[in-house]
Design goal:
about 675 residues; alpha+beta; Rossmann fold; Methionyl-trna Synthetase, domain 2
Amino acid sequence: MPENKRRLLVTSALPYANGPIHLGHLLEYVQTDVWVRFQRMRGHDVHYVCADDTHGTPVMLRAESEGIPPEALIERIYAEHRRDFADFHISVDNYHSTHSIENRQLSEEIYRRLKAGGHIVARTIRQAYDPVKHLFLPDRFIKGECPRCGAADQYGDACESCGATYSPTDLKNPVSVLSGAPPVERESEHLFFRLGDFEDGLRKWLFPDITDVRHVQAEAANKLDEWFAAGLRDWDISRDAPYFGFEIPDAPGKFFYVWLDAPIGYMASFSNHCAKTGLRFEDFWAPGSAVELYHFIGKDILYFHALFWPAVLEGAGYRKPTSIFAHGFLTVNGEKMSKSRGTFITARSYLDHVGNPEYLRYYYAAKLNGTMEDVDLNLEDFVARVNSDLIGKYVNIASRAAGFISRQFGGQLAYAGDTKPLVAGAKVALAQVAEHYESRDFGKAIRAAMEFADRINRAFDAAQPWELAKDPSKRTELQDICSRTLQGFKLLSVLLAPVLPALCGRAAREFFGLGKDFTWEDAVELPARVNPYSHLMTRIDAKQVEVMVEANKAGARPQESAAFISIDDFNKVDLRVARIVNAEHVDGADKLLKLTIDLGTETRTVFAGIKTAYAPEKLIGRLTAVVANLQPRKMRFGTSEGMVLAAGHGGTELFLLSPDTGAEPGMRIT
């Protein structure tokens, strides 16, 4: 338990509910999760909340195109987002939706408080209208040339080229994204939030004296200073019907703009969390609260979070954030994510093709720092770094030393000489890496850990335990070097646990036999024994990444749209009913189960990638369908002599095909 236990409320930006989570999204959620896990390991009281951002015209139009109500669309997307985050080990405490009773109530309450304070005004404006689709166009549904720098193909609210913000009516040569028609202007009365009312408070908050806490990064403050110089404009917080969102209480036919109720979604998700846990909402959101409030966001939504949001909170009588942490964009192979190049990759596609989410978590952590710099996912470097660092350095330490300890010493560790330097060294490493994690400079934390791994491996090589093992008089030396090596592995596992929670959790619970995940201070406790080592992680095959990229290229044939085959082609496949007579885990395999199947006249061994969806004991005795004439495939675990058939998206969503009652092992499927 830390001497000064902190209370923290942490959020990630809300993913929009009109599409899947992709690798660009994951950069932020991994960054947040690593920081949150580090704080929890230190013993602090951390609450991490998030939600789907569900309102706005894009959601309404997508639901319309699918012929379903918006509520049905956001419910489906919500389930997909929850599944993706869980599979990437994002440890959110409460994941909610902005289309919730809590968010409606808080949005209406905040609006009424702002209006009562004189911060809401009504004004008739001329607004872009699509004459073909017969609706007012959101800013992001208009494109044209930037009025400041002239860049083409820019959205109606901000320029991605020069960073200018503007009204969509300022765009040159605008067109509707929906119909391609030039928008026309029509008058409509809108409600505006008077952002300028809070300029003095925002300036003091964003540009404090040198002795005060800085609430945004230095480069963010510089960008915000530009916006102040341009003048803080009143913020349009209403939209006209048709619109999917919350209707404004005293303005029939008008709806809260999505950027009014989206950040309030942080509060709504936490309110929902309070109802489940008994926490007091006021303790976290009241002015003067001692709780630390942190928002992790992308730099593209800095304006909303660092100007609009704190001003709304102040005007409604709530506390401001402690800090807003903005990160850069994700590029892949040095360029924007691209469907044509196959680098616009969803979280689910990554899991389907590459598998282990901790490869990506590690690579992101190795590239992240506390600035707004963009992060590049170089796919070739990704494979090389993961294989070199995690397999060649980190996991290799345990696999090299554990065999000697298990075979010759029954798993017992013993240290010759003074162990105080080991403990002192662990404390130094913990303090150094903790500083990097705290400042979100994860790249430095990873580099420090890998430098330590290099030192452990060099010391092990220098001691030549394989030679010591040949000499019975050197048993004490052998046990000592292997024990010190495994103590180093434990320290490394603690240092990497925020990044690799599943892998390091297995090391803690199974290898070191702690029966729990690591805490930060576990690293200073010298391990006394270890259990027999089993493979913790396998290498990435570069071909997996290549297949993933090809599968994501625009125009790639979806699995459900395979080319037609003839009946003769189909008859070449020998599909049989089989009974699973045994199922077991495969050491060192993240996705495989070893199945023994009965085909009526023979039994075979099949390795199936269904470990994430099925516990082995649940499979024994059930019937399934197999491809019986598939060429046997030699694997490092053994030879697979067939293929079981399953459907689903992968991960936990895999479903073995089962024949109807009456089918027997060996029957041909036709």
